[in-house]
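Appendix B: complex inputs.
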Amino acid sequence: MAAYLLALRLGRWGIGGFGAVAFLVALVQAAGFYQIAGHTDAERKAFGRSMSLLASQFTVIIAPPIRLDTVGGYVQWRAFGFFAILFAIWALASASGAARGDEERGIVPALLANGLSRPRMIATRVAAFATGSVVAALAAGAGLLVGVASGGETLSTVPVLEAAVALAALGVCCYSLTLLFAQFTSARNSTAFAGVLLLALFLVNSLSRTLDVLVRWRWLSPFHYYEQSSPLAPGGTLDARATLVLLGIAAGSAVLAALAFRYRDVGSPLLTIPTPTRRASYKMSRSPIWRVPVVRDLYERRVSLLVWTAGLSALGAIFVVLTKSIVKPLLAIPELAPYFAIFVNGNIYASFLGFIWFGFAELLMAGFAITQVARWTAEDSDGRLELVLSNPISRARVVIERLIALTLGALLIAAVSGVAVGIEAHYQSIDLNSRRLAEASLLLVPFTLVFGTVGALLASRIPRATVGILGAFAFASYLTVQLGPIFKLPVWAQDVSAFKLYGQPLSTGVDQTGLVVMLVIVIAGLIASAIVIEQRDIGA
Amino acid sequence: MDVAAIQTSKLSKNYGLGRGLFDLDLHVEAQEIFGFLGPNGAGKSTTIRCLMGLIRPTAGSAHVFGLDCIRDYVAVKRKVGYVPGEMPQFGSLRGSEVVAYLGALRGGADLISVRRLAERFNLDLSRRYREYSSGNKQKLAIVLAFMHRPQLLILDEPTHGLDPLNQQEFFGLLSEAREDGATVFLSSHILSEVERMCDRVGIIRSGRLVTIADLDELHAIRFHHVELEFAPGTEVPVNAIRSAAGVEDVVASDHSVKCIVKGSFEPLLDALRGATVTNLVSHEPNLEEIFLEYYRETAPTKAMTP
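Resulting structure:
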């Protein structure tokens, strides 16, 4: 029981965080339905037809919806489809942390030294995550019920509970699979390899909806079994058999993980490749890279920078490839004309790319800034900043070097992904204004720096809470812009969002006011960070 | 007049609830090896972090070679080599890259000095930092602190994690640094360690300086728990042991004797002459026992600090 409670305690932030996100997303989607779907049966049926056509373009990612003219069907599609990805990411991070991260932190050896058996440890971890998964899934259900109540309607709790059960079963299944896979990899690679496995299982299922060759393999994917249930939509049910299969995979994977854990050394994967011995060296590195400020920081994080650059470039190119095939059918829907009128300005494809791709790129660049800020706070808590500051350099210089490195990193990602989008647009015969594309790409740099400098300021003052607050700030900024028009939020509230300050540079050019405001935030944040960090105790 | 290597005046860092550092007055001369002795949580690292300008004192001041540790913290670091209480993470960087990285921050490390230090401690710099054992991480910290031949070495429990052979090597390095003109401020919770190396020792407990002792005073403070066993059928010289100088708290039973020996062992060994001792065990008391003994000795003249 103590081990189970400890596992729950170790995962409490994940449970709280993902539970809160699930609650909010379900609440917002349910409340949003009443804002956009109309109030009469006819309006809702028309809305359902339009959204079904829209949804048919995205079946590569999300399962086809049922009854989008009802709040249950709409939330099943918009929220619970997204939750499958969200819970898989949570399970991945949590299981690789539990399996291998806790070994590196010494928690696993300490528990084993106190008499806890290895199978029991695996069992308690799975049980604790299952508990957390149920709590978060129920939070999603609660968000839905509150959202429905805000629309003056009611929804039976039975389908809500059924949806929560299916979601929790998927989460536990992904957790156990990651736990099993992590037994075979080195600690630092476990998240990446398990992530590739889960992504492959997700794609096998989602791509099987368009590629017939994959249909015969989708039985392998837990996401396939999750999609068999759609209890929230009228006429939909919880597929008990599919849910039991998910729980069966979870139990089987947990048993195999326990067996593998029993036979491997703590700190090592089950199978290891012997490395050749080599002569010791006592020489300091002579690489000039270490002598150049900022360059050494960029070099140290070169792998993650390359991954971000390649990832954004590939995604940008994919968005361009999909643009015509998505936009053309949508243009044929008269009901969507008002929706398009919001963001279409001149060239329809450029407007679409500007709204969809650069909107998504903003989100990713905010994520990039948050990961860099998280690294700064980690350097503070693990003592690296202390060691750096034991050299004759000022704290302000540390802040400035960090932000210059962030600027150059963001510039690299923005420039390369911009070029990728431009080249692919040329091949797809989509006419993009080169200057505006360059401006839109480069404008991502000050946008990223807004989050970077806010993060630097927070890290200078309250490093332990920085990532949480910055993440909430980014989430709130994004929601303000996305949902502001639907929920009729005050204009000033939308105007202060960094996502609004970025504007629509690809279709309407650079918003000079927005750019100036972003630069003012960046400069003010930089100065404030440099001042605040001088006043703070390091490592305290 | 020479400037003190370290000078603190009423230096305080109050963390609340009685935790922290209070009214610390220290004066460490240049080229002195000064030990800073105290149990865990006594305030040693807090003192060091104030000296390094990492934390701001709530009252008082700290100076290194006349430079204010807070206002002139960059200039202070030019003169200081530092071993932190715990080494941070450097992930996949190799030892050679960590040295190059931190050496460049300082403004260029001496290649020959680094190689000499790494060879001396048999520290393979081609290995990745995450592969290092805690002992190797500590060796790297020592290389980083000594590689630029600083005027002042501030060392927070520098032998932590080192095996006895490398501890010997470290003490040799410390002696050489002093011969080269360096000042050393060494924190530890091991009495024998500071007794061996230091000219003077400051003893700290619960955030307050208890005393500053030179070597003679330290020897007086020091004592050992001794257990003796005698061969069956032989006479146990209990009276001779009781009357030996520096021997206290003698407890005799059958063929064994337990006692405390303060200072030299010679009076006890003289008392044992002629007796057949089959076993003699001596162990050093922990710091808390030394403090209790110290307070017992000084109670009539000194007020006990919390």
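The radius of gyration of chain B is 23 Å.
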